[in-house]
Amino acid sequence: MDDPILPNLTVQQLEYLVAAAASPTRAAAAAALSVTPSALTQGLAELERRVGVPLFERHGRHTRLRPQATEVLAHARRVVAETRDLARWAETRRTGAAGVVRLGTIDAVAVHYRAEAIRRHRRAVPGLDLRLTVAPSGALFDALLVGDLDLVVCVEPTGPIAGVAMSPCLDESLYAYAPDGAHGRPPEEWGPWVTYPRGSHTREVIAAGLAALGAPFAVVAESNQPEVLREMVRLGMGWAVLPAAQAEAGVEPLARVRRRPVGVRHLVVARRADVASDAAVDALAAALTSG
User: Fold this and answer.
1) Cα-atom radius of gyration of the chain, to the nearest Å?
2) Each residue's pLDDT tens digit, 136-152
3) Class of domain 11-93
């Protein structure tokens, strides 16, 4: 037996049926839906026509549902309820009040510069499922490009990256720090250095800044973790160029070799340029950019 042809029903017609069943009169049902009684009556008549089964019977000046309309009413209630659920879900996605955002940041952003902004945003948008990844800038860009992250906050690369849109977030000064007893030397006698791994965006900023000062850049140890580099300086393993927020934190802060920074690294909020706009991602990006 062939499947029957589906009736071409609209959600509005089913909503009219639900309201008519719940109201004492059609005028009351129309008022509840903010439509005219004639529009309601026409919609119900069209629903009957499309279902192909009489749904109402007249009693004096009023109409009431026939017993055979029970199944149609049950279906209408399910469809209307689920459509309202869908409308609420869509509204939260349009406004950014809910959804999943996969955020990647370098450690300084997650721990220092934007930690409070992230906390405020999560409190303001409790329906947001925020998934945070902390990694070096290069790894974050790689994850962004393959679609594993929606948004990253990291060090600006030396040149544009195809398919990635970037907006400024903040500028971060980097200062030189030396082990105890090594302060007071001229730049040409600085080092050796403990620093970020080769290929790091921050290392490129440091190398350029030291070159401008005439300081050698002989590297004896590497780490992606500023806190590890800070401890290497305390142990006397070498000099380091670090953000003040990480070098001067804790009970034994490092002292700057000079008051002026060696360089400035620019932090950016980055996202793929070839994906559709997402309100939840947009809202978080705005919160991170404004701080």
Assistant:
1) 32
2) 998 999 999 989 999 99
3) mainly alpha
Superfamily of domain 98-171+267-290: Periplasmic binding protein-like II (3.40.190.10)
Distance between CA 50 and CA 44 in Å, rounded? 10
> What is the rounded end-to-end Cα distance, in angstroms, of the chain?
65
Reported as a single tens digit per residue, the pLDDT across 144-181 is: 998 999 999 999 988 888 889 999 999 999 999 999 99
Q: Which CATH architecture has domain 172-265?
A: 3-Layer(aba) Sandwich (3.40)
Quote the pTM value: 0.69
Describe the strand order of the beta sheet including 98-105 as a list of residue ranges. Answer: 127-134, 98-105, 151-155, 263-272, 164-177, 240-243
Q: CA-to-CA distance for 29 and 36, rounded, in angstroms? A: 9
User: What is the structure's pLDDT at 2?
Assistant: 58
